[in-house]
Amino acid sequence: MNLKLFENDQQLVHGEVTIADSLMPPAAWGTYSIRLPNDSLPQDKLVQIKVILWSCMDRRIVRPLFDNLIKDGYAENEILTVSMGGGPLQVGEDRIQAIKTAFMELQTKLPNVQKIVAVAHTGICGGLKHFCGGIPITEAVKVEFKAQAVEKGVNLEVYLTDLILENCLSLLPNSWQIKTHLNIAEPDETSKTVRIHPHESRATYTLSEIVDGHESQYA
Ligand SMILES: [Zn+2]
Question: What is the pTM of this model?
Answer without folding.
Answer: 0.95
